[in-house]
Design a protein that fits this description.
This protein is an alpha/beta fold. The chain is 37% helix and 26% strand. The chain has 10 helices and 13 strands. A 7-stranded mixed β-sheet has the order 4-3-2-5-6-13-12, with helices on both faces. A hairpin with a 2-residue loop joins strand 9 and strand 10. Helix 2 runs antiparallel to helix 9. The longest helix is centred in the last third of the chain and has 17 residues, at 200-216. It is globular. The mean pLDDT is 97. The chain binds S-adenosyl-L-homocysteine and N,N-dimethyl-L-histidine. N,N-dimethyl-L-histidine is lined by residues 37, 45, 149-151, 153-154, 194, 201, 268, 270.
Length: 308
């Protein structure tokens, strides 16, 4: 593991409000737990987004047009992407990009078997750092960056803006962005989605500490932290934390970091947007909003943005 990553984690743990980037959720087990989350009855985003895609697939396919290259940021299990791969016309290539290496390789080989006529070019990368994209064998008519799942919500507004600008660049001349974003709504619906009865989200959150122990040499005691997820309606975001249940010290090499009882480590934000707020994000990143699809309950939106 690069020293810079360990430094980044230690720097976050030295802050008055301790925090660790949500990208560290996604080791092999974390990716599997996220996949389980997407099937939970309380976790509305996946099913809702999939429904929006299915209901509007003809229009989406027409807007994207033939021979596009589809570049997915944070592809995970490529669950929703299958609907696109089945319906887009003469796709030039599918490029799934993800930080979770084993999971990406496994998902991509399944996709390759299911869609033998489409060139699949997986890329293992942290998309917040510069990375190279492979060139498809067939020259695409247009690059479409696909960013589903409201993963954009896991970034602060500033980081999301930076990431959207990277996507603007990757989309290139005539390119577009197809993005899924979760909407602000009743607090109860949101908090239920992040505090499921079966405890899968809690296990997903705690698994981050197991990942840090294994890959970076920490000695977190997983039994001494509790999952917390609260929606802040003013900030429009869920704040996911691990709360220390006793005074304790976490060690890494020579470094000792004290953590008091009740003190928390912030592990994730999940921002929820208004349609107006998200249109402002498009504008700031150099895109124009071409089309917005939402479900009947106005829970979630899928948007098609054109590169200006
Ligand atoms: N797109 C899927 C998965 C969303 S989960 C869906 O809609 O269901 C978020 C995904 O983004 C995970 O697969 C995770 O491994 C990946 N991810 C998170 N941070 C990342 C980063 N910085 N760089 C690359 N991939 C990242
Ligand atoms: C990947 N991301 C959009 C999920 C979310 O809803 O913010 C991650 C997640 N965290 C807890 N449950 C799901």
């Amino acid at each position: 593991m690069p020293d810079s990553e360990l430094e980044e984690i230690l720097a976050g743990l030295r802050l008055p409000q301790k925090k660790i980037s949500p990208k560290y959720f996604y080791d092999e087990r974390g990716s599997q737990l996220f996949e389980e989350i997407t099937h939970l009855p309380e976790y509305y985003p996946t099913e809702t987004e999939l429904g929006i895609m299915q209901d509007n697939m003809d229009e989406i396919a027409e807007l994207i047009g033939p021979q596009a290259s589809l570049i997915e940021f944070g592809s995970g299990s490529s669950q929703k992407t299958r609907v696109l791969l089945e319906n887009l016309i003469d796709l030039a290539a599918y490029v799934p990009v993800d930080i979770s290496e084993d999971h990406l390789i496994e998902s991509s080989s399944k996709i390759s078997a299911e869609f033998p006529d489409i060139q699949i070019l997986p890329v293992v990368a942290d998309f917040m750092q510069p990375f190279d994209l492979p060139e498809p064998a067939i020259w695409p008519r247009r690059n479409v960056v696909y960013f589903p799942g409201s993963t954009v919500g896991n970034f602060t507004h500033d980081d999301a803006n930076e990431l959207l600008r990277v996507m603007h660049q990757e989309a290139g001349e005539g390119g577009a962005l197809l993005i899924g974003v979760d909407l602000q709504k009743d607090r109860y619906i949101i908090e239920r989605a992040y505090n499921d009865e079966a405890g899968v989200t809690a296990a997903f959150n705690l698994n981050m500490l197991r990942h840090l122990n294994r890959e970076f040499g920490f000695d977190f005691d997983l039994d001494a932290y509790e999952h917390s997820a609260r929606y802040d309606p003013f900030a429009g975001r869920v704040e996911v934390r691990l709360v220390s249940s006793r005074d304790q010290t976490v060690r890494n090499g020579d470094e000792e970091i004290p953590i008091a009882a009740g003190e928390s480590i912030l592990t994730e934000y999940s921002h929820k947007y208004t349609l107006e707020g998200f249109a402002a994000m498009a504008d700031a990143a150099g895109f124009s909003v071409e089309k917005v699809w939402i479900d009947a309950e106005r829970l979630f939106s899928v948007q098609y943005w054109l590169r200006q």
